[in-house]
Specification:
The protein is mainly α. It has 2 domains: 88 residues, no CATH class; 70 residues. 80% of the residues lie in helices and 0% in strands. It has 9 helices and no strands. Helix 1 crosses helix 4. The two termini are 37 Å apart.
Amino acid sequence: MMAWTDALTVVEKLAPMLATGLGGPLAGGAVSMLEGVLGLKPGAATSTDERQTALSNAISSATPEQLLAIKNADQEYAVQMATLGFKDSEALASLSQQDRAGARAMQISTKSITAPLLAGFITLGFFSIMAVMMFYRLPLETHDAMMLMLGSLGTAWTGVVAYYFGSSAGSARKTELLSQTAT
Protein backbone atom coordinates (compact mmCIF):
# COMPACT_ATOMS: atom_id res chain seq x y z
CA MET A 1 0.00 0.00 0.00
CA MET A 2 1.37 3.40 -1.05
CA ALA A 3 1.09 6.45 1.20
CA TRP A 4 -0.79 9.47 -0.16
CA THR A 5 2.37 11.60 -0.21
CA ASP A 6 4.15 8.94 -2.27
CA ALA A 7 1.19 8.81 -4.65
CA LEU A 8 1.36 12.60 -5.01
CA THR A 9 5.04 12.34 -5.92
CA VAL A 10 4.14 9.92 -8.72
CA VAL A 11 1.35 12.22 -9.94
CA GLU A 12 3.71 15.24 -9.82
CA LYS A 13 6.09 13.46 -12.19
CA LEU A 14 3.42 12.07 -14.54
CA ALA A 15 0.83 14.82 -14.42
CA PRO A 16 2.09 18.13 -13.00
CA MET A 17 -1.10 20.08 -13.75
CA LEU A 18 -3.29 17.47 -12.01
CA ALA A 19 -0.87 17.41 -9.07
CA THR A 20 -1.17 21.19 -8.74
CA GLY A 21 -4.95 20.85 -8.83
CA LEU A 22 -4.82 18.24 -6.06
CA GLY A 23 -3.10 20.72 -3.76
CA GLY A 24 -5.55 23.59 -4.16
CA PRO A 25 -9.18 24.62 -3.86
CA LEU A 26 -10.03 22.87 -7.15
CA ALA A 27 -8.90 19.47 -5.86
CA GLY A 28 -12.30 17.88 -6.43
CA GLY A 29 -11.99 18.04 -10.21
CA ALA A 30 -8.46 16.65 -10.19
CA VAL A 31 -9.44 13.82 -7.84
CA SER A 32 -12.48 12.95 -9.97
CA MET A 33 -10.37 12.91 -13.12
CA LEU A 34 -7.79 10.58 -11.54
CA GLU A 35 -10.52 8.32 -10.18
CA GLY A 36 -12.09 8.12 -13.63
CA VAL A 37 -8.79 7.22 -15.29
CA LEU A 38 -8.08 4.54 -12.69
CA GLY A 39 -11.60 3.11 -12.78
CA LEU A 40 -12.53 4.10 -9.23
CA LYS A 41 -16.15 4.89 -8.43
CA PRO A 42 -16.44 6.29 -4.89
CA GLY A 43 -19.86 6.32 -3.28
CA ALA A 44 -21.53 9.49 -2.09
CA ALA A 45 -20.65 8.68 1.53
CA THR A 46 -16.98 7.95 0.80
CA SER A 47 -14.70 10.08 2.97
CA THR A 48 -11.73 12.06 1.69
CA ASP A 49 -9.34 9.72 3.51
CA GLU A 50 -10.96 6.67 1.90
CA ARG A 51 -10.71 8.28 -1.54
CA GLN A 52 -7.04 9.13 -0.95
CA THR A 53 -6.32 5.57 0.15
CA ALA A 54 -8.12 4.13 -2.88
CA LEU A 55 -6.23 6.47 -5.22
CA SER A 56 -2.90 5.66 -3.55
CA ASN A 57 -3.51 1.93 -3.91
CA ALA A 58 -4.63 2.30 -7.52
CA ILE A 59 -1.59 4.40 -8.41
CA SER A 60 0.79 1.93 -6.76
CA SER A 61 -0.65 -0.94 -8.81
CA ALA A 62 -1.26 1.02 -12.03
CA THR A 63 -0.46 -0.62 -15.33
CA PRO A 64 1.66 1.16 -17.94
CA GLU A 65 -1.56 1.85 -19.86
CA GLN A 66 -3.11 3.50 -16.80
CA LEU A 67 0.02 5.59 -16.23
CA LEU A 68 -0.20 6.75 -19.84
CA ALA A 69 -3.89 7.50 -19.30
CA ILE A 70 -2.95 9.66 -16.28
CA LYS A 71 -0.49 11.57 -18.47
CA ASN A 72 -3.22 12.07 -21.11
CA ALA A 73 -5.70 13.13 -18.41
CA ASP A 74 -3.18 15.75 -17.30
CA GLN A 75 -3.18 17.25 -20.79
CA GLU A 76 -6.99 17.23 -20.86
CA TYR A 77 -7.10 18.82 -17.40
CA ALA A 78 -4.62 21.50 -18.54
CA VAL A 79 -6.89 22.34 -21.50
CA GLN A 80 -9.94 22.54 -19.21
CA MET A 81 -8.08 24.78 -16.75
CA ALA A 82 -6.80 26.98 -19.61
CA THR A 83 -10.39 27.58 -20.75
CA LEU A 84 -11.13 28.68 -17.19
CA GLY A 85 -8.23 31.15 -17.23
CA PHE A 86 -5.47 29.07 -15.62
CA LYS A 87 -2.85 28.95 -18.36
CA ASP A 88 -0.33 26.87 -16.41
CA SER A 89 0.27 25.16 -13.08
CA GLU A 90 1.64 28.37 -11.54
CA ALA A 91 -1.63 30.18 -12.26
CA LEU A 92 -3.57 27.30 -10.73
CA ALA A 93 -1.26 27.16 -7.69
CA SER A 94 -1.73 30.90 -7.14
CA LEU A 95 -5.40 30.19 -6.40
CA SER A 96 -4.45 28.60 -3.05
CA GLN A 97 -2.20 31.54 -2.22
CA GLN A 98 -4.95 34.02 -3.11
CA ASP A 99 -7.41 32.08 -0.97
CA ARG A 100 -5.13 32.30 2.08
CA ALA A 101 -4.32 35.95 1.36
CA GLY A 102 -8.04 36.74 1.23
CA ALA A 103 -8.62 34.99 4.56
CA ARG A 104 -5.73 36.88 6.14
CA ALA A 105 -6.98 40.21 4.77
CA MET A 106 -10.46 39.51 6.15
CA GLN A 107 -8.94 38.64 9.54
CA ILE A 108 -6.99 41.91 9.59
CA SER A 109 -9.95 44.05 8.53
CA THR A 110 -12.57 42.50 10.82
CA LYS A 111 -10.27 41.84 13.79
CA SER A 112 -12.38 38.74 14.47
CA ILE A 113 -11.18 36.39 17.18
CA THR A 114 -12.64 33.38 15.38
CA ALA A 115 -9.50 32.40 13.45
CA PRO A 116 -7.09 32.65 16.41
CA LEU A 117 -9.51 30.79 18.69
CA LEU A 118 -10.09 28.08 16.12
CA ALA A 119 -6.34 27.80 15.53
CA GLY A 120 -5.77 27.51 19.28
CA PHE A 121 -8.41 24.82 19.75
CA ILE A 122 -7.14 22.85 16.76
CA THR A 123 -3.56 23.02 18.04
CA LEU A 124 -4.59 22.11 21.59
CA GLY A 125 -6.77 19.26 20.34
CA PHE A 126 -4.14 17.87 18.00
CA PHE A 127 -1.36 17.78 20.57
CA SER A 128 -3.71 16.60 23.34
CA ILE A 129 -4.83 13.62 21.27
CA MET A 130 -1.20 12.85 20.44
CA ALA A 131 -0.24 13.00 24.14
CA VAL A 132 -3.14 10.75 25.15
CA MET A 133 -2.17 8.23 22.48
CA MET A 134 1.50 8.30 23.52
CA PHE A 135 1.03 7.95 27.26
CA TYR A 136 -2.17 5.91 27.66
CA ARG A 137 -3.19 2.55 26.27
CA LEU A 138 -6.31 3.06 24.18
CA PRO A 139 -9.18 0.62 24.47
CA LEU A 140 -9.57 -1.34 21.24
CA GLU A 141 -13.12 -0.06 20.70
CA THR A 142 -11.97 3.60 20.67
CA HIS A 143 -8.76 3.14 18.65
CA ASP A 144 -10.31 3.76 15.22
CA ALA A 145 -12.20 6.83 16.41
CA MET A 146 -9.05 8.28 17.96
CA MET A 147 -7.05 7.65 14.78
CA LEU A 148 -9.77 9.35 12.72
CA MET A 149 -9.77 12.30 15.11
CA LEU A 150 -5.97 12.50 15.03
CA GLY A 151 -5.96 12.46 11.21
CA SER A 152 -8.62 15.15 10.99
CA LEU A 153 -6.92 17.36 13.55
CA GLY A 154 -3.54 16.81 11.87
CA THR A 155 -4.97 17.95 8.55
CA ALA A 156 -6.62 20.95 10.19
CA TRP A 157 -3.39 21.82 12.03
CA THR A 158 -1.50 21.77 8.72
CA GLY A 159 -4.02 24.32 7.45
CA VAL A 160 -3.50 26.47 10.54
CA VAL A 161 0.27 26.46 10.01
CA ALA A 162 -0.18 27.30 6.30
CA TYR A 163 -2.58 30.13 7.21
CA TYR A 164 -0.27 31.75 9.74
CA PHE A 165 3.14 30.95 8.28
CA GLY A 166 2.53 30.16 4.61
CA SER A 167 2.99 26.82 2.95
CA SER A 168 6.20 25.18 1.93
CA ALA A 169 4.71 24.46 -1.50
CA GLY A 170 5.38 28.02 -2.64
CA SER A 171 8.91 27.86 -1.30
CA ALA A 172 9.53 24.52 -2.97
CA ARG A 173 8.28 25.85 -6.31
CA LYS A 174 10.45 28.97 -5.96
CA THR A 175 13.50 26.81 -5.20
CA GLU A 176 12.75 24.61 -8.19
CA LEU A 177 12.46 27.62 -10.51
CA LEU A 178 15.68 29.13 -9.15
CA SER A 179 17.57 25.88 -9.70
CA GLN A 180 16.28 25.70 -13.27
CA THR A 181 17.49 29.21 -14.04
CA ALA A 182 20.90 28.49 -12.50
CA THR A 183 21.59 25.63 -14.91
